[in-house]
């Protein structure tokens, strides 16, 4: 059992670590420069900023940028998500209560229902929605004028957005994974805010295991802080960071328990593959979606796993990383006969 207090505390810490302006925001130099031009021009015209679409993997700063947009424009922000808007009436209620210039942040916008999505088209373009009253032949559409507002949409799967919705955004940006040097700056900044003493090698060790993601860097920093506080003198060095991350099962390439379980099952049980996704998920005791959406993207990006038409296959780097010897070419496969070449997505 996990108490709700821990989640509340983590959320509060993450909120405190968020940059408050574009000048404080670390990384994403192209996005920052482009967004700064968009916002500065809007302020000079005294107009509402164009609608903004942010795409990219979780933890790269999409929510933070939405808050920065509101702060830079001196406007309030309303935060909701696509899964929370399942009916057009839900969206109409939110839109009708917006103030002029307000920023509406819609997270996971690709998961919004189709009726609400179609209502959003008119709201973004004409600042108007038609509210249908009644049913059947007696139904009446009442036009409702909206004040100018800025919609900031965030998505981890931009390809699922329909073109009519995507084309209505005046500015679109794709968030890239961070370089180690950028993550070191993130760790140093967060350490100052958390009042954690860390030297440069210690910060570099945390950054190198953060999978190119600031959210993970901040989470690992908090766990290393705990270890340093309890097991050492509170000062984070490279050795202390290594010991702490070993306790929390994060290896030198950033792989966690789930990542290594997937690789070990693929190598030891199935001889490196190919093996189907569902079979691999059963072998590690996880849901298929968990393996596909949580573990696989990082393993593929690190060059440790490949997706092929026949199934998942380990690369030579995977064997090397786990210290295992790949089977000789032409040697009999250790994959059970009924599972060879399974293609399950």
From TrEMBL:
Record Pfam families: AAA_lid_4, RuvB_N, WHD_RuvB
GO molecular function, one term: four-way junction DNA binding
Region: Disordered, residue numbers: 321-345
Region annotated Small ATPAse domain (RuvB-S), chain positions: 179-249
Residues reported to bind Mg(2+): 63
Catalytic reaction(s) noted: ATP + H2O = ADP + phosphate + H(+)
Domain AAA+ ATPase: from-to ranges: 48-179
Annotated Gene Ontology cellular component terms: cytoplasm; Holliday junction resolvase complex
Region entry Head domain (RuvB-H), spans: 252-345
Positions bound to ATP: 17-18, 59, 62-64, 125-127, 168, 178, 215
Amino-acid positions noted as binding DNA in the UniProt annotation, renumbered to this chain: 288, 307, 312
Xref: NCBIfam families: PRK00080.1 (NF000868), ruvB (TIGR00635)
Protein name: Holliday junction branch migration complex subunit RuvB
Provenance organism: Streptomyces chumphonensis
């Amino acid at each position: 059992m996990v108490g709700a207090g821990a989640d509340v505390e983590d959320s509060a810490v993450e909120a405190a670590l968020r940059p408050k302006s574009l000048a404080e925001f670390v990384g994403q130099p192209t996005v920052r420069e482009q967004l700064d031009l968009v916002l500065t021009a809007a302020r000079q015209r005294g107009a509402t900023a164009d609608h903004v679409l942010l795409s990219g993997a979780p933890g790269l700063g999409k929510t933070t940028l939405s808050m920065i947009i509101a702060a830079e424009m001196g406007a309030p922000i309303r935060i909701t998500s696509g899964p929370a808007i399942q009916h057009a009436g839900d969206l109409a209620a939110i839109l009708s209560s917006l103030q002029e210039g307000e920023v509406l942040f819609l997270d996971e916008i690709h998961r919004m229902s189709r009726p609400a999505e179609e209502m959003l088209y008119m709201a973004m373009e004409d600042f108007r929605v038609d509210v249908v009253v009644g049913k059947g032949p007696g139904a009446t559409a009442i036009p409702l004028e909206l004040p100018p507002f800025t919609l900031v949409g965030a998505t981890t799967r931009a390809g699922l957005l329909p073109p009519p919705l995507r084309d209505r955004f005046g500015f679109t940006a794709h968030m890239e994974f961070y370089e180690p040097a950028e993550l070191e700056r993130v760790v140093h900044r967060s350490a100052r805010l958390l009042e954690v003493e860390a030297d440069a090698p210690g910060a570099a060790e945390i950054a190198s295991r953060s999978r190119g993601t600031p959210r993970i860097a901040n989470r690992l920093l908090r766990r290393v802080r705990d270890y340093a506080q309890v097991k050492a003198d509170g000062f984070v060095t490279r050795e202390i960071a290594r010991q702490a991350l070993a306790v929390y099962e994060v290896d030198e390439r950033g792989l966690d328990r789930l990542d290594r379980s997937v690789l070990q099952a693929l190598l030891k049980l199935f001889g490196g593959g190919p093996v189907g996704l569902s079979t691999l998920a059963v072998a590690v005791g996880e849901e298929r979606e968990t393996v596909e959406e949580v573990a696989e993207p990082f393993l593929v990006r690190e060059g440790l796993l490949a997706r092929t038409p026949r199934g998942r296959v380990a690369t030579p780097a995977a064997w090397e990383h786990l210290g295992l010897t790949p089977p000789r070419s032409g040697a009999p496969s250790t994959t059970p006969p009924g599972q060879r070449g399974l293609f399950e997505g």
